[in-house]
User: Fold this.
Amino acid sequence: MAESSVNSKKTYKFKAELNQLLHLIVHSLYTHPEVFLRELISNASDALNKIRFMQLTHQDLADPDAELKIKISLDPKKQLFTIEDSGIGMTRDELINNIGTVANSGTLKFLEEIQKNGKTQKSDLIGQFGVGFYSVFMVTDEVIVETRHADPDSKGYRWISNGKGSFTIEEIDRKKRGTSISFRLKDDYKEFSETYRVKSIVKKYSNFVDFPIEIDKEKVNSVGALWRLSKDELKEAELNEFYKFVANDFEPPLGHLHLSIEGAVNFKALIFVPQKAPLNLFYDMENKGIHLYANRIYIQDDAKELFPEYLKFLRGVVDTEDLPLNISREVTQHSPVMAKIKSILTTRVLSMLEDWAKNDAGKYEKFYKNFGPLFKTGINSDFANRDKIIKLLRFESTAKPKGEIVSLDDYVSRMKESQNEIYYLSGKNRDILEKNPNLEYFRKNDIEVLLLTDPVDVFIVPSINEYEKKSLKSIEKADINLEEEKKDKDDTSENESLNNTMVESLIAVFKETLGEKVEDVTTSKRLVNSPVTLVVGKEGLDPQLERMMKMMNQEVTPQKKILEINPRHQLIKNLSRLNIGNSHDPILRESILQLYESALLIDGNLANPTEFIQRMTNLMEKATK
Ligand code: ADP
Assistant:
């Protein structure tokens, strides 16, 4: 195994986070110890993919005739495991940077998250971040990596570590190109040096790896490039394992798309939708979910050229005959072939989602709840498909219990004949929205209102403007078309409104008292049980958007709002009575300020509660005298 050292050994320290990561892996992956095998095979297969690609473009490679394969050697008596590939290998710097440190910022993010989410399924999280190589330390106490890069001038190196704090690197005399990784299994895991055990795992997890995998000289995998098979040849179990392999996931996918396109552009694709969104959908690692192949030769992991940003959660493989094999990254970026593939893939994925929405609502809902926040941003970036995406939007609604979602089509189908606008209200969550006084009129008149609880909604819904010729309106805006309320038969005099002169006179006092604090004061048609509410002028920002900008610490001068008063409310009537007696009555003036600040409080915009509380105490004192 170990070749003789020709140079002195150097010791390097792991970064602190790596120790933390190792600890986590050992303690959270113990239920899936076989994962290390999948990770090592996956790395070997990547390294072989890279060399297969280089062979087409570079003449000069170390060990040019080496067969491209993965060799696993086992020794159950000594509990030894070795995996060797004839892939691209690693330079000294690569050994230090790729194996010896947490190079991936996603991994650091993962560590932070895992600390925050103490209780979530750690194995799920680990799947999302692909901790890869380090998983071997679950089954062994010391790992030896010997490698030589494909560059003919390269040297061989041996890397040794116990995974706890440091590693050493020394130069060795190695003729073979590629990498060998060997270790002695801990007693608890000695099963992984048994041929039958390793064989069954490889068959299960890695059957489709496109290079021969030999275990003790016998080839065990059989399928190869799975995406080239026809639909009938594809078995679900294999598809699921293939997905886990490409997506680094533990769970099977939510659904998949298998395409074989011939025509102006030719390609085959296997595209998967995962079950769960990554922890941070918008950040989502380096966007490496889609592997691009040209004629079965792996080119790059890069979804960017194959899918628009809003679909970057997809995983899978695209294999085309129409790209030259020696294609570079710069060329793929500007290639018309890629642009065509991208447009076809996007349309097909949207059709698949439409099909789910129509025929398998549960599946679509699951998709939407996981990926909706990113998916819906397509409205503002993919204008060619904007209408399709709008149809695929879903919202909570006052017509449905909490948690259920409806489409704009559902909404429109329930609209009353007299209603010509689609109403929505945005806010942090359903419970807060339900209490918003601006909903009172709609509830009383049984008019459906969409409840926008996803923070992304306020960035996209206002841009829709119209759906099926009905305009979309926030019920927090001043200009909605509310019908003048018809008087209920059983309206008692208590519910009767103040007359216009009294209202106008009271509004004048409100305006005088509030001055520059408000844009205007008007009578409200939308209030039923509350005395006042704040709404935004026609050109104003959606209040939820304003709250979010504040949360993101953006400089926003709070926009002035319109205070609407409810002339049927007893408190407003009482104030009117005080106003008729003496428009400078201190209780009247204090009550106006108090009402205004209560509305600010509900709106989430009361900056200084001290005065509010003092005034309330004062008013209560007077009321209880
Ligand atoms: P990941 O595969 O997710 O990048 P790993 O921890 O498994 O993370 O591997 C880190 C890096 O080490 C790889 O990206 C690759 O650059 C390098 N590496 C690992 N195994 C091999 C191998 N067998 N041959 C060449 N490079 C390898």
Remarks:
- The pocket of adenosine-5'-diphosphate is lined by residues 39, 43-44, 47, 85, 87-90, 98-99, 130, 132-133, 179 (CB under 6 Å).
